[in-house]
């Protein structure tokens, strides 16, 4: 049976088979008095009501809803999160606000290693329950598709445990989930004096084959940054991952211009993420390679750092996506509406560019654009009803969310 949603003002990016860049990123289709016919959770037709209902018998429609002219957009796609974690680091955030340097926080037991220890000490069921709560909070704010990384394990068994939890989130919540293996999130203390051994003996020879055999993760990610993994170490890991059939992502140039964005272009990674310190040369190379720039303005907000120059990156013809970077340390944010507002207000992106960045381009950044990211025939009927006349409401209504209703596969879920 079919469902008919009618009388809406629908805004969506239009998928032409690739992520949108440059001037194309700011082109949004607006359909006034639009209707959408949904069959088995998938958009069958969208457009003017007489065209959408042409040839359809009334008895074929099992459910009908009139949105009264409300603004409707695709469900948000959050393409970068570390939302699978065991313990929040609120105390550490307070220390940062008080001016305590990161190394001092680390010395007091904070930092990423505290999240690693918490994951190892938490049983799988409890790790799922805690992660599920945060994921459902994201859903209530309009996220219908989400990428979730491992990376708080740093040993094989803990990483596999995280990926099993991420798979359960995919199966036991309404969200579509893209699982990413990120065993290369940090160098464990026992390998600090020999990080090459961790890369070659643990990540490449031990973890990657077991993660591949597990069959959950679709992507492999690495934190390419000074004091974490070098460009050469990242190159070795990503090439090994590609040879095993993983798609590639890279945390690049968040603090220093190490050349991670250049490596992303060289390897044609699906995305490169953070990019606060990436050079113009390497960003333009990413654009030529078709690598998507995933920008994380809520992280800059939480760390009181300068924002990525989204305006320039769009103008340099690099496809841009935006994400929450939800994690327990540097950015505990599950709200894509907040990220949308920051992209417009702090990265100087237009509202239309931000809408593309948080839907279609974000879907391309996690390899799911064939299913989600725009409201077009053949894609999932994932959409949001906003309290406002246009997507401008997402930036205009500061400090709150304009998302009134959330639909996944044509069903209201929040």
From TrEMBL:
Subcellular location field: Cytoplasm
Binding site for Zn(2+): 80, 82, 251, 325
Residues engaged in binding N-formimidoyl-L-glutamate: 152, 327, 329
Keywords: Cytoplasm, Histidine metabolism, Hydrolase, Iron, Metal-binding, Zinc
Cofactors: Zn(2+); Fe(3+)
Family annotation (Pfam families): Amidohydro_1
Protein's GO biological process: L-histidine catabolic process to glutamate and formamide; L-histidine catabolic process to glutamate and formate
Main location: cytoplasm
One annotated Gene Ontology cellular component of this protein: cytoplasm
The name this protein goes by in its record: Imidazolonepropionase
Gene: hutI
């Amino acid at each position: 049976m079919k469902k008919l949603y009618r009388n809406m003002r629908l805004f969506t990016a239009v998928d032409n088979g690739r992520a949108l860049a440059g001037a194309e990123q700011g082109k949004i289709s607006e359909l006034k008095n639009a209707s959408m016919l949904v069959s088995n959770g998938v958009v069958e037709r969208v457009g003017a009501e007489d065209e959408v209902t042409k040839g359809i018998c009334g008895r074929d429609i099992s459910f009908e809803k009139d949105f009264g002219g409300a603004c409707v957009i695709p469900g948000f796609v959050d393409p970068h999160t570390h939302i699978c974690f065991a313990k929040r680091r609120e105390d550490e955030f307070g220390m940062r606000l008080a001016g305590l340097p990161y190394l001092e926080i680390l010395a007091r037991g904070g930092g990423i290693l505290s999240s690693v220890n918490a994951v190892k000490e938490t049983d799988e069921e409890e790790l799922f329950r805690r992660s599920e709560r945060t994921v459902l909070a994201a859903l209530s704010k309009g996220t219908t598709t989400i990428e979730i990384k491992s990376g708080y394990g740093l040993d094989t068994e803990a990483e596999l445990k995280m990926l099993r939890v991420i798979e359960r989130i995919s199966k036991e919540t309404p969200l579509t989930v893209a699982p990413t293996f990120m065993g290369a999130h940090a160098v464990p203390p026992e390998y600090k004096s020999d990080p090459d051994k961790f890369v070659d003996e643990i990540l490449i020879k031990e973890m990657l084959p077991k993660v591949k055999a597990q069959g959950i993760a679709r992507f492999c990610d690495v934190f390419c940054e000074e004091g974490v993994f070098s460009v050469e170490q990242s190159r070795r890991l990503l090439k090994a991952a590609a040879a095993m059939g993983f798609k590639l992502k890279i945390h690049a140039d968040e603090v220093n211009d190490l050349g991670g964005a250049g490596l992303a272009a060289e390897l044609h990674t699906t995305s490169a993420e953070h990019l606060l310190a990436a050079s113009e040369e390497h960003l333009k190379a990413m654009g030529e390679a078709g690598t998507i720039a995933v920008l994380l303005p809520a992280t800059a907000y939480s760390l009181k750092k300068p924002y990525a120059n989204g305006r320039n990156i769009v103008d340099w013809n690099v496809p841009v996506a935006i994400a929450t970077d939800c994690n327990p340390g540097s950015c505990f944010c599950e709200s894509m509406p907040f990220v949308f507002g920051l992209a417009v207000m702090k990265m100087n992106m237009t509202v239309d560019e931000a809408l593309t960045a948080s839907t279609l381009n974000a879907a391309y950044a996690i390899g799911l654009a064939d299913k989600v990211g725009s409201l077009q025939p053949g894609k999932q009927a994932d959409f949001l009803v906003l309290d406002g006349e246009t997507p401008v409401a997402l930036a205009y209504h500061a400090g709150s969310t304009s998302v009134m209703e959330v639909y996944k596969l044509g069903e209201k879920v929040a």
